[in-house]
Amino acid sequence: MTKEALFEQIQQKQSFLCVGLDTDIKKIPTHLLDTEDPIFEFNKQIIDATKEFAVAYKPNIAFYEAMGAAGWASLEKTVNYIPKDIFTIADAKRGDIGNTSSLYARAFFDNMNFDSVTVAPYMGSDSVKPFLEFKDKWVILLGVTSNEGGKDFQFLKADGKPLYQQVMETSSRWGSDQNMMYVVGATRPEYLKDIRRIIPNHFLLVPGVGAQGGDLKAVCENGMNDQCGLLINSTRGIIYASSGKDFVEAAHQEARKLQTEMASFL
User: Fold this and answer.
1) What's the confidence (pLDDT) of residue 232?
2) Which of 63, 75, 59, 138 is nearest to 111 (CA)?
3) In the prediction, which pLDDT does 211 show?
4) What string of H, E and C letters represents the secondary structure of the chain?
5) Cross-strand partners of 140
6) CB contact at 8 A, 215 and 189
7) Catalytic residues, which ones?
8) Nearest by Cα to 25 from 71, 88, 73, 79
9) Domain extent for 99
10) CA spacing 20 to 30 A to 19: which of 28, 41, 92, 222?
11) 50-78: string of b/e by CB count within 10 Å (b at 16+)?
């Protein structure tokens, strides 16, 4: 998907909502466990409940890998079920030497037809550039993460700059705002102004709004650009809004609530 097509979706839906599909067999409503593929059935119903508000879906690959071949089958069915005009993110956090990265890219872009994949920048340019060789596909590079351990390295300073800023400055030259995005945790909105000085035109994938305590208003005020430039991810607050048979309606209501709030910022 191109940047223009993504922005068109944002304008049409008045939303920049990304729904995380971190589907845990232990958390889905028990009445689904009797279906042929409980993981896919849950995802299918969540997608149906939220697709009018969502511009992106983000399955976390670990939840599917943990189930072996059956999990990969559920993931493939899920990706194929998502409407083609909605952006898809393989939240895989891959990153390895060139040949291996090329194979990861083929797995997610050619085989499963995701629009994007999250990538770790630690091994440098030759671990990222293979993902950038695919037309209309995206790298979403880890920038500033919201986990507590993110402080261990991301804010270490060299030459007066925190490491995350140096990562963004350097990596932004590997691609462009047409094929690279960055992960910036919603619990770190105070860094968004500095980040926007470095990458004013790139999209940012912002997890952490909702259950993790991120503030949508603060993220929008500090991180939005003239093409929105944000994909705000919500997972638990939507897909696990209810653990009962009303989970579809609960997910619909939570997604609509976020979309309504997002529309006020566009």
Assistant:
1) 96
2) 75
3) 55
4) CCHHHHHHHHHHHCCCEEEEECCCCCCCCHHHHHCCCHHHHHHHHHHHHHCCCEEEEEEEHHHHHCCCHHHHHHHHHHHHHCCCCCEEEEEEEECCCHHHHHHHHHHHHHHCCCCEEEECCCCCHHHHHHHHHCCCCEEEEEEECCCHHHHHCCCCEECCEEHHHHHHHHHCCCCCCCCEEEEECCCCHHHHHHHHHHCCCCEEEECCECCCCECHHHHHHHHCECCECEEEEECHHHHCCCCCCCHHHHHHHHHHHHHHHHHCCC
5) 118, 181
6) yes
7) 93
8) 71
9) 3-263
10) 222
11) bbebbbbbbbbbebbeebeeebeebbeeb
The token pair at 116 is 């994007």
CATH code of the domain in which 177 resides: 3.20.20.70
Residue pointed to by tokens 């609509």: 256
The strand pair at 138-144 and 180-184 is best described as parallel
| pLDDT the model gives residue 190 | 81
Asked if residue 91 lies in contact with residue 231, where contact means CB atoms within 8 angstroms, the answer is no
**Domain count of the fold of the chain:** 1
Structure tokens at 17: 């909502």
Q: What is the pLDDT of residue 187?
A: 74
Cα first-last separation, the chain: 21
State both tokens at 85: 């005009």
Cα(233)–Cα(139) distance, integer angstroms: 16
> Rounded to the nearest 5°, which phi and psi values hold at 25?
-55, -25
- pLDDT for 159: 85
pLDDT of residue 13: 98
